[in-house]
Amino acid sequence: MNMHPEAAYARLTARVTRIATINEAAGMLGRDAAAMMPNGGGAARGDQMAVLAGLAHGLATEPQVTDDLAEAETVPPADQWHAANLRLMRHAHTRATAIPADLVEAQVRANSACELIWREARRTADFAMVRPALQEVFSLVRQRAAALAPALGLSPWDALADGSQRGTLAADVEPVFDRYEEFLRDALPRAEALQASRTPPLRPDGPFPLDRQEALSRRLSARLGLEPEHSRLDRSAHPFCGGTPTDVRITTRYNEADFSSSLLSTLHETGHALYERGLPTAFARQPVGEAAGMAVHESQSLIVEMQACRSDAFLGWLGAELQLVFGGVAAPYAPSNLVRLWRRVVRGFIRVDADEMTYPAHVILRFRLERALLAGDLVVADLPGAWNDHMQGLLGVSPPNDALGVLQDIHWYDGLVGYFPNYTLGAMAAAQLMAAVRRAVPGLDAALAQGDLSPLIAWLRTNVHARGSLLGFNDLLREATGKPLDPADFQAHLTARYLS
Amino acid sequence: MNMHPEAAYARLTARVTRIATINEAAGMLGRDAAAMMPNGGGAARGDQMAVLAGLAHGLATEPQVTDDLAEAETVPPADQWHAANLRLMRHAHTRATAIPADLVEAQVRANSACELIWREARRTADFAMVRPALQEVFSLVRQRAAALAPALGLSPWDALADGSQRGTLAADVEPVFDRYEEFLRDALPRAEALQASRTPPLRPDGPFPLDRQEALSRRLSARLGLEPEHSRLDRSAHPFCGGTPTDVRITTRYNEADFSSSLLSTLHETGHALYERGLPTAFARQPVGEAAGMAVHESQSLIVEMQACRSDAFLGWLGAELQLVFGGVAAPYAPSNLVRLWRRVVRGFIRVDADEMTYPAHVILRFRLERALLAGDLVVADLPGAWNDHMQGLLGVSPPNDALGVLQDIHWYDGLVGYFPNYTLGAMAAAQLMAAVRRAVPGLDAALAQGDLSPLIAWLRTNVHARGSLLGFNDLLREATGKPLDPADFQAHLTARYLS
To answer: Which helix (H) or strand (E) holds B490?
Structure first.
């Protein structure tokens, strides 16, 4: 080995920059596929994504990387950022070399093919139509998990979960979810009873022209700090945030009869987008400069949407704004009514429409089922029935068809396993971060009451965004809030909001 | 050398498929940059495009290709398609290996950077702002031309022109353009005099709601044969056609006061899109399965827009449709008025707004200036003045500022030299093809009078689209029309339409 650790590290940073740039291209194409692409383009797009994934994987696994890593690791890094960057390079290399190149491309193709069938299967509520494709997807997911697990020293599910949020372990998640289930069993009926005892909310009187909703979405998003020069808001069937830190793409969907969906999802996606915008530019396209994981990402969308924008203070400001934008009868825009309208608990079938309190039940169900699938305790053919049983057990409702059940989410049909817990870990982290912000920023509610999130965002910039991937999920929370993940803050938030 | 020509050919087809797939991804990103991307994303996008170009170039120039080509060429190909495919692979290899890899990425980055500055320079009519970036772009273009010329045995300009339409030689183009200039010197004043002697056209009375214009554009595009399952129509500052054969993306722009621009540009881009849709699927992602070049491409948009859709027959049908869609006073929608409205000659400053007769003058100007730039007879700093002199010489008008002059087109600022002649070669080919269709398809005008382009498109499918890159520009015309490019057909078309 040629002992030039600095040169080896420089080669590594150049290489990961190149890989990140390919992944940016792939991400942009994936986002186009979701928001723009006509169905007929699906096969070609699958090929494009597969080839890009193969090229990125090829660069990540060239023999030179092994030598460069070993060489770079022979000297202590300049500082904690470079130390973390090198650690993350090593981790990514372990993951990449564990997976054979042909499996990488096979997964992209199988996922892409399955996703196309799934769209049609969901439209027609026909699980049987997509079953063979899903079996193929899961068969490849199991191969991936089996390849990753020994390399990472993790269980198969943990090895997959590590891909979306490093360090997530089923053994940690399981008790958190079990305790939440207990909490919910008691809290949900009480919240429902309290809700039933109050005046039902008035719905604002539509129609609400789409262009006016869109202008409002753009204005709010900019008010929260998302610069139009570095972002776009488009329409898609499902809201999401994609793109790159200098070109963030968010989407929402519009319903002429009800502006709630476009408004709230825009606030949510803006939270994601602000995180991307606040990542440390000095480490752009380096592992340590990336977002810290999908649970952290979700905490940033939820602290904006759920914690800040559904607070009494912000809704007070927002109501007057909405009245100005949409006109009509004033009563539905009264803050006390918006609180009843947008803070309701409902035992629904659809995860993305769920309220804060029941949302984790949807996640717990998916966590349990995907672990059973991975362990071989459940086969794909039995998935719809198992789904409905768990819904009955957790929320006491049964979907009337599979479109409202096992077919509702894209994730599994796109090969994404180990991902769902991030939504609830993120919700819990958001509550914990908000409690810390409340302690640290005295004028927070006064600002929210002016429709001003800048004190919150400034705190998040420093304590979350600008830290990139320097810290793992629990360490990030520990430095920002004084403790690792503590679900008590989320339960306290729900108790204050729904049970008093 | 290991004598397995079939295996070598199979390796080559797999490789070019991979390269074409990367180029598809790059094309989609380029299209997003033009239609969707916020300006702040420009730098990152430039990097993405550069990395993809570098990867494609790397695959195209691996030493294995040299061996595979030599081996595959040892046996006679199975048929003319495989023969042409192999010839085109050899040609692409000669081009790719002539250009150093670092020049490929340097050009993409310089073009991308210059294009961003150009947008602002054009907005503020400030050529000096973009001059240094354009000098850098031209310096790299000259390096490219100098590298390509000896490898291809062509002059520098010819070597560049070969990149957008194989076989285009300045020595062939020059006399065609000189003769057109002579024709124009006589024809344009006569057309203007005739026009002045007639009733001026009535403008349909707006406003024309954008969503109604968009619905009309979609309906016409589908009526012409472009399937929504395999295409999208979006909005962008400049209309274009991009994407891939199964996912064609066209754009248009809308003006609430005048629907002409969205309508006519949609018809034009639909012509491009139908060509992509009609390419031979058996050779998808192979060189012989691609469009035959940009002059042929332009012939397909212009035969739809200019030859078919601005014909008396089609305008007769279209007028009634427009009246139904937009309502209001009927007189402007009379076919005789639409003819006067959409078949006017005007000495304008802007190429993309030019009529059929003056359009070639805009092209001739660019052809002459870029040849002078490449030869070193003109420096970038003197370009605005030279531009205005040539406009005065060709059309007798001088742009009042550079936004209406040298800054109007993206091409040079994006490193595209040797491209402009394709617009006029395409217009001439369109006239020649239309004359052949008229001979071959007796019911053509009757169909056009019903708004039915299917007999025309069917003929084009067989004689142009489905042939891919099997034939070069002149051979394609020869087989389809009985002769190589003959500008007389275009002049006859203009004479019939504007001078009688």
So the answer is: helix B488-498
How many independent structural domains does chain B possess?
Answer: 2
Average pLDDT, chain B: 96
Say if CB A351 and CB A408 are below 8 A apart: yes
A254/A124 same-domain check: no
Give domain status of residue B232, yes or no. Answer: yes
Answer with the one of A134, A153, A172 that is the final residue of a domain: A153
> Can you read off the two tokens belonging to residue B173?
């183009």
Backbone torsions φ then ψ of B358, nearest 5 degrees = -85, -20
Q: Over the stretch B170-194, which tens digit does the pLDDT of each residue have?
A: 999 999 999 999 999 999 999 999 9
* pTM of the predicted structure, to 2 decimals: 0.91
Question: Is 80 exceeded by the pLDDT of residue B225?
Answer: yes
Q: Which positions in chain A have a beta carbon within 8 angstroms of at least one beta carbon in chain B?
A: 18, 21-22, 24-26, 28-29, 32, 36-41, 43-45, 47-48, 51-52, 55, 227-232, 234, 243-247
Q: How far apart are CA A163 and CA A169, in angstroms?
A: 11
CA dist A280 and A464 (Å) reads: 10
**Around Cβ B125, how many Cβ atoms within 10 Å?**
15
Which pLDDT belongs to residue A2? Answer: 55
Query: Residue B74: inside a domain, yes or no?
Result: yes
Of A38, A52, A247, the CB nearest to B41: A247
CB contact under 8 A, B41 and A227: no
**Which of A18, A28, A210 is the best mutation test for B, with the most CBs of B within 10 A?**
A28
Side chain identity, residue A461: R
At residue A268 the predicted structure's pLDDT band, cuts being 50, 70 and 90, is: very high
Mean pLDDT of A141-157: 98
Q: Are residues A134 and A251 in the same domain?
A: no
Length of chain B: 500
Find the chain B residues whose C-beta atoms sit closer than 8 A to any C-beta of A.
18, 21-22, 24-26, 28-29, 32, 36-41, 43-45, 47-48, 51-52, 55, 227-232, 234, 243-247
Same domain, B170 and B149: no
| CATH code of the domain covering residue B370 | 1.10.1370.30
Q: For residue A135, what pLDDT band results from cuts at 50, 70 and 90?
A: very high
Task: Dihedral sign for Cα A89, A90, A95, A100, please.
Answer: positive
Q: What are the pLDDT digits (tens) for A188-218?
A: 999 999 999 999 999 998 899 999 999 999 9
Contact across the interface for A44 and B231, Cβ inside 8 Å? no
- Joined together, the tokens standing for residue A400 give 């009337």
Mean pLDDT of A40-63: 94
Task: State pLDDT tens for residues A311-343.
Answer: 999 999 999 999 999 988 999 999 999 999 999
Domain match, A185 and A315 both: yes
Within this chain, do residues A391 and A476 fall inside the same structural domain, yes or no?
yes
Chain A interface test: which of B19, B24, B28, B62 (most A C-beta within 10 Å): B28
Structure tokens at B59: 């695959």
Instruction: Note down the domain range covering B99.
Output: 5-153
Helices (H), B153-282: 156-161, 170-196, 210-223, 260-278
Q: Are residues A258 and A298 in the same domain?
A: yes
Residues B382 and B420 in one domain: yes
Percent of chain B with pLDDT over 70: 99
Q: What is the model's pLDDT at position B2?
A: 55
Closest in A41, A232, A244 to B230, CB measured: A41
Strand partners, A232: A249
Q: Would you call B51 and A247 a contact, using CB atoms and an 8 Å cutoff?
A: no
Choose the final residue of a domain: B153, B176, B202.
B153
Q: What percent of chain B has pLDDT over 90?
A: 92
A227 given a catalytic annotation: no
Q: CA-CA distance, B166 to B344, in Å (whole number)?
A: 33
From B43, B343, B320, select the one nearest B191 (Cα to Cα): B343
- The DSSP secondary-structure symbol of B417 reads -
